[in-house]
Amino acid sequence: MSQYYPQETVRNYNMRSAPQLTPKGHNEATCLEYGLLKVPYEMLNRKFRTTIKRLGKPMIAINNLSNSIESAIPRSNQPLPIAKINDKYRGLTKKVEEFASSFQDSIEAEIEIAKVLESRAEYLNKGVNGDEQDIDYFRRQRVCRLLVDHLLRIGYFETAQKLVDYTAIEPYTNQEVFQVAKQVEESLKRQDLSICLQWIADNRSKLHRLNSIFETEVHVQYAVELVKQEKRKEALEYAQKYLQNLGMKEWKGNVLTLMTVIGAGPFPGDTYRKLLSDDRWTELIEMFRAENARIFNISTLSPFSACLQLGICAHKTPYCTENENSRCIVCKELFDFSLGLPYAHINVSRLICPYNGEVIDESNVPMMLPNGQVYGENSIHELKRGDEIYDPNSDQHFALRDVKRVYIL
Ligand SMILES: [Zn+2]
User: Fold this and answer.
1) Which of 158, 163, 235, 283 could form a disulfide with 223 if both were Cys (CB 3.0 to 4.6 A apart)?
2) Distance, CA 309 to ligand 1 centroid (Å)?
3) Neighbouring residues of the ion ligand 1, judged by CB less than 5 Å
4) Three state DSSP letters for 59-87
5) Distance 209 CA to ligand 1 centre (A)
6) How high is the mean pLDDT in each 10-residue block of the chain (409 residues)?
C-alpha cells in the first residue's frame, strides 16, 4: 500500500516555546498511546471546521437581510415603509434564531469531544504518572485496549465489542471511527459505492490536504461499473462530470485506462482486465482503510501488531525451528509469525534449566547427569530420591555421586 502514501512531511515544531514536560515512562506512552489522544483531537478539529462551514451560510443570509433592511430605510424625511421593513425584520429574526440554535448545537458537540479528549489525557496521565496501583491497572487495561484496536482495524467488530463490554474500556477505544469504517467497508464488499461517496464528501477537505487519489479511484470505479453494464455513454458523462477537474499530472494510470475502456469497451490486455475485475473492490477496501488511518493520523500497523512482533524478535534466535515439544515460545507456538522478522541482538547467552525454567548462573550452578543431561542445582535438589537422582527427560535413575558440576568457559 506504500504507493498511496506521499513522502511524509517533516514538521518543525518550535520546541523552545513548548512547555517542558518530561513524563515518567515517556517512551511506551508516546509510542503506543498516540491514537488515544490523536483520534479525538482530529474529531474535534473536523467538528470545528464543519461548524465554521455550517454557520457560514446563515451568517451571509443574516448580513444580506440586515443590509436590505438598512437600504429600505429612506434617507430623507419620507415615511418609513413599515410593512416592507416588518417583513424583512421577521425574516431576519427567524434567521438569527436558526443561527443561534445551530450555533448552540455545534458548540455542545465540540464541548462533548473536548471532554473526551480531556478524560483521555487524565487517564493517560494517571497511567503514566499515577501511583503503583493506577499504573498496574492501566497496563492491564492497555493489553485489552490494544487488542480491541487491532480487532477493529481488521474488521472483527463483534469480537471487539465483546471484549469492550467485558473489560469496560469503551471511553478509551476509537470505536466510533471504526464503526463508520465498518459501514463503508461492508458497502464496498457489496459492490455499492453510495456510502463510500458519502464518506468522501464528509472528509473531502482532509483528503484533499493529504493529496489523496482515493476519490478519483472511486469515481473511476463508478464509471467502470457503468461500462460493465454496457452504459458507455453514461460512463462518459459521469467521467466528464467528476473527473474534469483533474490536473494534467493526474491523467495517468486507471484514469487513462478508464478512458480506453469507455471508448473501446472491454479491451484485451492485463491492465484493462485488472480494472474490470472484481479484485478492484478488495483494492478499494484496502485503500479506504489506509485513507481512514491517514485522516485520523493513526499508523497503518496497529500498536498491538508492533508489540507482538517486538516480543517475538526478543525471543527469536538463528536456531529456531518449528518444534511443538520445544520450551522456546517461538519454536513451539509462534514460528509461523516469526518468519521474516529479525533476530534479537543478544551479546551474552543465558542458560535456562529445562526442568524448572530458572536461569542457570553462579547461584544455581549447572550440574550434569551421566547421560549428558544438564540441570540447575536447584532442580537437582528437587529430583533427588535418597542416594539417587531421577531424570524426567529420559525417565532414568542415576547414583547421586555420579552427578558432576559443569564449568562453562
Ligand atoms: Zn526457538
Assistant:
1) 235
2) 15
3) 320, 328, 330-331
4) HHHHHHHHHHHHHHCCCCCCCCCHHHHHH
5) 47
6) 36 41 55 83 88 87 89 79 84 90 91 93 88 89 91 86 90 85 92 93 88 92 89 89 83 84 75 82 91 81 88 89 87 91 80 88 93 93 92 92 89
